[in-house]
């Protein structure tokens, strides 16, 4: 899309009315990172626009134009990071997936929601294609346009249903929290999330995972491909467990077969060798310093009173979620329940528990619905 075309889209959407439906297509599994490769917009009076963010990497003018408009997204937290990268940040939003959860729908994928709420079937045949392909085939573009075709209609129907159930205020609190949330910090030690990591017991083997993961990530970023296409997690774990002494031994491991060239094999062997040569003082620790309470399975031994509080609080929150016909994690996150029970406030009063829940990020509607239950659970175990 040329600059002149983008300018016409900005003007059209500025002069349109009502909420704007927004969607983004990424190339997960094909390209490095989570950047957007297609942006879809629809608004009453402007119609549908498909924008190529590769050709137009700065959409901040469009974002500012729509700044005072409510944005309608499905599973907003998935798309917001890549939208922010190109200058699009909603001040207000309506998340149709989250609305579906709060309204008690069992299936909240976009296709399922459109079908159950509006009675239309969306064609989802191109959901996993490589959206970095250029030019994008016409059938893919038609599919992408349909993703925003009915999004505002879905929003309106879900708003009415939430109003009927007395949950619309709750939803608005949730949407405001999503829109105002800062970008999450980079994950610490992301290599620890390598699939199969539970098999790796020794610190030097863990160092090999770290070296192989870091090398793979640098190659994937340089080539702009998904890390899994450079080297699979399974292959990383195989090499870390075996700690092969040379390229020949490495090439005999699963994931390093005949299709891998000598240069690539030497690259991975060098990573293993670096891990082998590290002094003990530079080897990674068996586990990260925990941020928060230990795993609940250990509570009975570490702190039986905390374990009893957790059992009582979980049961109460789950029962209330069932009464409200919404997922327990949407009523109050399991992490918040665990932290509250592991370190309850010094005074287990409504005021003390309210302050603790707010510090954990709970919204006011969540506090209102769970406060009496949590106070009772904590007081019972303190008695």
TrEMBL record:
Gene3D superfamilies attached to this UniProt entry:
HRDC domain, Ribonuclease H-like superfamily/Ribonuclease H
The signal peptide annotation in the UniProt record is none
UniProt region (Disordered), positions on chain: 181-200, 280-303
Q: Which residues form the HRDC domain?
A: 202-282
Q: Which InterPro entries match?
A: 3'-5'_exonuclease_dom (IPR002562), Exo_C (IPR041605), HRDC-like_sf (IPR010997), HRDC_dom (IPR002121), HRDC_dom_sf (IPR044876), RNase_D-like (IPR051086), RNaseH-like_sf (IPR012337), RNaseH_sf (IPR036397)
Which PROSITE patterns does the entry mention? HRDC
Name of this chain's protein: Ribonuclease D
Organism listed in the record = Streptomyces albiaxialis
